[in-house]
Design a protein that fits this description.
This protein is an alpha/beta fold. The protein is 34% helix and 16% strand. It has two domains: 148 residues, Ribosomal Protein L4, Chain: A, CATH 3.40.1370.10; 51 residues, no CATH class. It is built from seven helices and six strands. Helix 4 packs across helix 5.
Length: 206
């Protein structure tokens, strides 16, 4: 087991905590992380883009001129894709990009992402994430005391004061433990875990 310091929002060491190797000390496989991140990004796609084909374009269906005898190319109605303002051929239409990776693979990738942060000394544990009031300056001072900037903060539950204090700070995201995911862990340079959230992580991944 790896020992990690537990600090407060002032950056002072309070205690130590043991992190189980089954979650924070596994073998990291880049291919598994890549697979899960691609799945997450695909699931976030809206897929609402749409074009009008020739049946959707407004216009007359009358043939522009007769088929033969003019010396010109054959032409149908004014909604033809060959004409300006006509329909679009093979354009995109609304679709669902989402798909699923097996649950075991997703859990394995989450363990690998947490292992990566611990191995790179980018993981910090805080005993209490609660702020007494909604104040951005108090939050930025706390982050400066801990020496982090680009950071994902994972709380045990909903911390309203913390979330509202951090929402205007660039490069910071506050996430409840239920929303913990591989993409956000890897996206941010540092990871701060509330001490109470570690028990939930172990219950979810062990």
């Amino acid at each position: 087991m790896a020992k990690v310091e537990v600090c407060n929002l002032s950056g002072e060491k309070v205690s130590e905590i043991d992190l189980t190797d089954e979650i924070f000390g596994v073998e990291v496989k880049v291919s598994v992380l890549h697979e899960v991140v691609v799945m997450q990004l695909a699931n976030r796609r809206a897929g609402t883009v749409c074009v009008k084909n020739r049946s959707d374009v407004r216009g007359s269906t009358r043939k522009l001129y007769r088929q033969k005898g003019t010396g010109r190319a054959r032409k149908g109605d004014i909604k033809s894709p060959l004409l300006r303002g006509g329909g679009v051929v093979f354009g995109p239409h609304p679709r669902d990009y989402s798909y699923k990776v097996p649950k075991k693979v997703r859990r394995s990738a989450l363990r690998m992402a947490l292992t990566t942060k611990l191995a790179d000394n980018q993981l910090k544990v805080v005993d209490d994430m609660e702020l007494p009031e909604i104040k951005t300056k108090a939050f930025t001072n706390a982050m400066a005391a801990m020496g982090v900037k680009n950071v994902l903060i994972v709380t045990k539950g909903t911390e309203t004061n913390l979330e509202l204090s951090a929402r205007n700070v660039r490069g910071v995201k506050v996430l409840p433990i239920a929303g913990l995911n591989v993409y956000d862990i890897l996206k941010y340079g540092n990871l701060i875990l509330a001490q109470g959230a570690i028990e939930d992580i172990e219950g979810r991944l062990l």
